[in-house]
Amino acid sequence: MTVRRGFGEPSGGRSDLVIGREESFAAAREQLSRGGSVLLHGPAGIGKSTVLRTLAGEYARTARTVLRCSATESESHLPFLALADLLGLVLDEVSGALPDAQRTALESALTGRGESTLQRDGLALRLAVLSALRALAAAGPVLVVADDLQWLDPASAELLGFAARRLGDTPVRMLCAVRTEGPETEGSEYGRHLRAAPPDTRAVRLGPLTRVQVSALLDHRGYTGLPRSTVREIHRTSGGNPLFALELGRALAESPTPPRPGEPLPVPTSLRALVLSRLEMLSEEARRTLLVASAGARPTPALLHAAGRENAEAETARAAELGLLAPDPEGPAVRFAHPLISAALYAEAPAAERRAAHAALSRAASDPIERARHLALATTGTDPEVAARLAEAAALARDRGAPSVAASLGLLAARHTPAGSEPGPGEHRLQAAEDAITAGEVDLARDIAREVLARATAPGERVRAWMVVIEAAGQAIGEVDAVFPQALADAGDDPRLLALVHYQLAWRGLVVQGDFAQGREEAAHAAGLAARAGDRRTELLALAFQAQAETLMGHPDAPATIQRALKEPQDPRVACHHNGAGSARFRWLVMSDRLAEARTTVTALLREVRRRGMAESEVHYLRFLAETELHSGHCGRALDLARQSLTLARDAGIGEGAGAMQAALAEAAGGDVERALDLAREAVRRAEEDGDAVYLSRALAALGHAHLVAGDWREAVRALRRVRELEAGAGITDPARGRWQGDLAEALVRIGEPAEAQDVIDTTRAHALRLGRESVLAVLDRAEARVRAARGEHRAAVARLTSVRDRLAGLGYGLEEARAAFALAELRAGRPGPASYDDAARLFRRCRALPWLRQVDAAVAARAAGPAPERAGTPDGLAGLASMERQVAALVMEGATNREIAARLFVSVKTVEATLTRVYRKLGIRSRVDIVRLAAGRAP
């Protein structure tokens, strides 16, 4: 129990279990900050106590008195114990404020002197607790912190609930946590505890963590280096429960050897005891039935019968009564109440019983993949027949679009393949590694490849393994530079193997050195070697690479190379691959302003890679589709797609920098500008860390664009000048690649550099004219109109913008059309002629371009306010702020709260807070009051 007075106690730091609780914290903080109470609830181990402690540490500073109690199950039978924890140390302070009968009853309950009971002294005790809290609150705010309400002794719970319901406007806040299972209904435990809380209490449920959050939690605790497939299994087994996930991570860290594919995670004794205590109430036969169910992928009563469990219905019904099983909303499957129950039950069983369960399922299962998997897990040692069945099952899984399953089956096949067989264990492992790459499980693929390299002597196996290591590096290909000489040495003079290595050398030249010409030459060489060797798959990949490089370079051979890459015969694995000819054609279509064809192409590719389970390609095609929708002015759709792509990229650990880059562009167009800036900075950081020269320029272009939308012209120019230097050094001449040139020219005009802006426009226009990039030419004309306006050529600027808007509309670039209308409105403001801010707003609204709509609103408000009054010798104190910063500062001057500002500007409260922080820093002030003083021309 803690009692604290005053305001100087520091709050504790955040625990790692707070990861993934941002929304819960926001809801609780909002409630507490306005004087309300909070009830945290959720299942055991979900992190309630950690969130409770963190919030209590934060809000203890605003309370004069903090009362705490934390009940335990073993003490829940002791009457008034929780009440003694809460009020024991303040009894002397409050007793003088209580009537005699109340004081006597309370002292008797808290000290144990006398025999106070609820039955005898019920009313006096109830009123005494209420009076004590009011007396404490009379001296200053009170915070009551109560953890594990479910273990409160009934007497304390009754008294606390009575007082809570009658506190009214008394400055007493309650911050409580309770374990709840099952539905949130009035008749449940949740409902009972909520009724015992103050009427204004906000219930905040803590749910399971996502897979990405579990990964972050494990990393934060120090369980790093786990393969993503293992992290996924931890997430599945723990059900997203942070305590369970950490315990599983700890067990893995302490295990001398990691589990092999098909083997269960090591479940620590602590968790086994937690979830298996109810098993003792089952018969031995019922436990064996549940073991068979835990070994199956999706067990049903029919499957259990076929596996020899004759009384499956009655035994599973009894398990459901004990809470071990739960109804399956999707059908008749036997579903465990929590995945950990199944894992613990399987881990607890002796190895012989587990093999017997798998043997029974290998005969009972109807699916050939499941039969093969169970047969493997029931078999010890090598067995060529079992290995052959596993290889067939892996091929079937591959055809079904389940490469992750194919990889695990391939590893099982390698384990059961005798040495000297054909194909041998190494071939099965390599195929498993390549399946893992397809599934996006790059950590697993890398580990398998290293295992092959440690054993293999055949050049073909070694080179294929090196290729997996390079593929697994992704954009960080520079980190595996030492691999290339070894791969070339193993390849010897075999053109098939050399083609594989030179294809990867093409990527190295592009990504590491940013040299498109070198990458193109290596790809052409690889295509020639592959054609000599009859390796059509590698030839197609190399041709597709060559086509993409030529497209970005503005090389005249690009269309012909694309056609060569699209010629038959095609390899279906390459045809839909994100580095294949389909992707090259999509890029060419987008850059050629054929947006409708580009959308059709990438939609078909996305459908196919999803069917095949190609995780990395799905990440890229979602990003490509988001790019197409953004060009078309469908900002809401683009934002959804970009967020999907980034979520998948983070989950698989592939393409995160590219995903952050595209998400930044989408957020800047249709979401939150602060979020766009954060994502763009992340993309730049990742590209720099990976040594990725290709995506560094694109990430910087996204950062410059986000600064432009935020109204920070100088930062936009700084980022985009770097892009210009990088692309010139890389030999990229096609301006449709990144489409940043118009942004740079516009930002240069804004900061008073029209001459440099014109140079950017002239240089870019020459390339755009040569390549026929109509949309780029229109955007350049829009930027040039701003240059002309800056030079006083107002009529020519208006005429140019009017033409530009029509051209962009005809090409289908909705957002760029709206930006042209906005520029036109800015030039016409205050001059004769039709006002067109409404027109710009209509177009931005059609695009769902919320950040641009906010710019229009700010421009309209500024025009309505008219010129600022002259202040002799006093500069405008807010003139140095960016557009978003000025809007927030203006609303502060109106007296709006952060939440009201967020609602009016369509941003989050967090964005408002971050913007105000920047305003304070730029202006050298510390408070909202200082903003008003500055704007009024007074010193803060």
TrEMBL record:
Gene Ontology molecular function, alphabetical: adenylate cyclase activity; ATP binding; DNA binding
UniProt keyword annotations, A-Z: ATP-binding, Nucleotide-binding, TPR repeat
Domain HTH luxR-type: 874-939
InterPro entries (alphabetical): AAA+_ATPase (IPR003593), AAA_16 (IPR041664), P-loop_NTPase (IPR027417), Sig_transdc_resp-reg_C-effctor (IPR016032), TPR-like_helical_dom_sf (IPR011990), TPR_rpt (IPR019734), Tscrpt_reg_LuxR_C (IPR000792), WH-like_DNA-bd_sf (IPR036388)
Protein's UniProt keywords contain Nucleotide-binding: yes
TPR repeats: 697-730
Pfam families reported for this sequence: AAA_16, GerE
Keyword Membrane: no
Protein name: Helix-turn-helix domain-containing protein
